[in-house]
Amino acid sequence: MQKNISILFLFLVLLGSCTQKKENLNDSEGKTKKDVISFAPKVTGRIVKIYVTEGQTVKRGDTLALLDIPEVSAKIAQAQGAVSAATAQEQMAKNGATADQMRQLQAKYKGLKEQYDFAQKSFRRASNMYRDSLMSPQAYDEVYAKLQGAKAKYDAVVAELDDVKRGTRFEKVEMAAGQASQAKGALQEANVAYSERYVIATNDMEIETISLNPGELATAGFALFNGYIPESTYFRFTVPESEISKYKKGQAVTLQVVYNKENLEGTILYIKQLTRYADITTAYPDYQLQDAVYEIKVKPKDMNKAKNILVNANVILK
């Protein structure tokens, strides 16, 4: 008799389990998700200090880490020297010749003019003597050559003096200005790179992981801080084709968080087909292999209530 009672009790337990499992299969299980974000340095440097910890919520503009970038400091010094030199060249081109340079050029002009006048007088005398057969052709040619040489030097200094009086050519001024602008751009680029030694949060984030420690080398573009965007909680479910007719975009649904039994209200944002079986989140897949699988994304109505739910926690779509 007692044995029969035990068998009957075991049968009732198994029946209740099967009934409960069957009821659970009528609901869809999913996961809690948040939008992921990462922060990475723009330049390569060695980590000097990290100002935040894992699990901390940071705001946009907060300083996350400090990098040591000695190469950029050297580039700034080089760029500053180039800016000084280029600026001086530009100013010199605009100002033209100095007063001392002008006096030197005028003295040179006077000296060459005296030489040219003397050469002209000597040539006139030589011409008269040559007509009277008092000078050989060789000596006459030498006097004429000296006259031409003196004239060439005189013409050159006249042109040089005229060029200085008119001022520096427009093209030279523009060229000097362009070189100065290029040097200033290089300095600005170096200063921007130097400011990137601070890793700044560009968005609010709940830090999940910090990839490196102080003293390690952080390369440009490497994700140093990883985490989630606060108040971006949503729920993701996978539903087989046989059950998808129960859900529509914009439909209000009820959800339950498995680990704390908390009930939430939400709205279906979209329904889309999945292409791979590995993308499903249902714990008890109960459908034919040829059935299509769809993803349902649900946004909670009360984000303040949903933002504290743990990421990847199981939820049930009622």
Automatic annotation (TrEMBL):
<dbReference type="InterPro" id="IPR058625">
    <property type="entry name" value="MdtA-like_BSH"/>
</dbReference>
<dbReference type="Pfam" id="PF25917">
    <property type="entry name" value="BSH_RND"/>
</dbReference>
<feature type="domain" description="Multidrug resistance protein MdtA-like barrel-sandwich hybrid">
    <location>
        <begin position="37"/>
        <end position="87"/>
    </location>
</feature>
<feature type="coiled-coil region">
    <location>
        <begin position="95"/>
        <end position="122"/>
    </location>
</feature>
<dbReference type="GO" id="GO:0005886">
    <property type="term" value="C:plasma membrane"/>
</dbReference>
<protein>
    <submittedName>
        <fullName>ABC transporter permease</fullName>
    </submittedName>
</protein>
<keyword id="KW-0175">Coiled coil</keyword>
